[in-house]
Amino acid sequence: MHGVSKNFIDFVNSLSVLEKDTADILSKQLETVSFKKGEAIVEQGSICRYVYFINNGLVKTGFESKERTFIMRFFAEGTMFTVLDSYLTQQPSAYKVEALENTVVTRISRTEMDKLCARFHAMETFFRKLVSMASVNMMARIGEILEEQASARYENFLKENPDLVQRISLGDLASYLGITQVSLSRIRAGL
Length: 191
Description:
Layout: H1 8-15, H2 20-29, E1 31-35, E2 40-42, E3 50-56, E4 58-64, E5 69-76, E6 80-81, H3 84-89, E7 96-99, E8 103-109, H4 110-119, H5 121-147, H6 150-160, H7 170-177, H8 181-190
Antiparallel strand pairs: 1-8, 2-7, 3-6, 3-8, 4-5, 4-7
């Protein structure tokens, strides 16, 4: 698989340096779970109760209706994700998170994260920075969808995610770009 040296604690430390005792307490609250390719990590309509770190693998977040499938983001090893609105409000998620490869994640529950944030300033800082990063990424994604032509979105995706292109299907890439597979084929042929 695609090797990664970072783990959950390293990722937290990259945003907010933890004291050793805080890191030890955090590590006791972490759980590692495996998902098979095609398996849902968060079902559409269920409540997202965890923050996840990808040790190994690849996931997509998106929503499906009768009319269409839309992919919001892809997350690969070394990144952290949650369905932020559902996680924060504890309301059912409009989004599904699905493993695109056999995927191993380390996760922490909302309950335990809240306790750690209340107890340790460094964890509160980490969580604030994580939510800030998610907000900035979401605004960039919305701007991309609204403003750019599909061919520009495709070129931007290739530039930002050169390592992901070989790992995701053309159907998923088209759904991410908001175009049909036929349109994607035309764009690819034209480049």
